[in-house]
Amino acid sequence: MGLSPEQLAEISELRSQAQSTLRATAPGMEAHLYKPYQVLDHGFVRVVDYMGDDAAICQAARVSYGRGTKSVQNDDGLIRYLMRHWHSTPFEMCEVKLHVKLPVFVARQWIRHRTANVNEYSARYSILDREFYIPAPEHVAAQSEVNNQGRGSALEGEEAARVLELLKSDSTRAYDHYEEMISSDGQQGLARELARMNLPANIYTQWYWKVDLHNLFHFLRLRADAHAQYEIRVYAEEICKIVADWVPFAYGAFEEYRLGAETLSASALDCVRRMLKGEEVTKETSGMSAREWRELEAVLKG
Fold this sequence. Notes:
Strand content: 5-15%
Active site: 223
Strand order of the largest sheet: 1-2-3-7-4
Order of helices and strands: HHEEHHEHEEEHHEHHHHHH
Number of domains: 2
Binding site for dUMP: 109-112, 120-124, 196, 223
CATH topology of the largest domain: Gyrase A, domain 2
EC number: 2.1.1.148
Helix content: 40-55%
CATH class of the largest domain: Alpha Beta
Family: Belongs to the thymidylate synthase ThyX family.
Mean pLDDT: 91
Keywords: FAD, Flavoprotein, Methyltransferase, NADP, Nucleotide biosynthesis, Transferase
Largest sheet: 5 strands, antiparallel
Shape: flat
């Protein structure tokens, strides 16, 4: 795993220190605190800090209508109600700070979620490590013929080997030149902020990423989806495991109403209602485009 000896020592020290606190803690999250979980070949994700739990979500929700209603609905039921009816503010009462090591091209996808606080490793001040993401052979795939932003079937044999060799050799050559440019051995050496431009997008970077639970769920709904790019999906799946232990009621509601659910347009819902009444609805009578009809069919077939 891509952790330096200094980082490992820091983690060991932090986990050896028991802290007394009056604030609410989540036993499931305490078990994850500081531990790194490997993702891809050199990446990881680990929890640095967190705030809140399932009870904090309910506390925030109940302040809107008074404590006297608490006996009407238990915490699990209340959280499911909030998730089902898109009441997002109570989920913002929980936050988590993650330390993530990831390839730069994955980071560029990840940063599109602009509702978080991010502090990234600076290649202006520090020298990046010689670590590159090289996909496993089963993840070296051709361009999809039906999805312009996705991959199709895996490359095989000599073609797969050729692509992997190009990725490895290009990464190595670019880093060799990076080291040559910044070297001060017999020369002034190029500034690090300029030399970094020559590095490939599969080199690893690191950042601290702090986000509230509502926006984290939005990230996970998109990035843990089966259609998300594999290299970011595996990070989202690892985070899902952590969140499930941190806020089990909230994560259960998220799985039920977001991650495992589908959203139907007004036209699609009208088609379903007509079908339930016994009408035979076709693409021609649906009032939807061919692509919308295919998507509805895929939802109904499961």
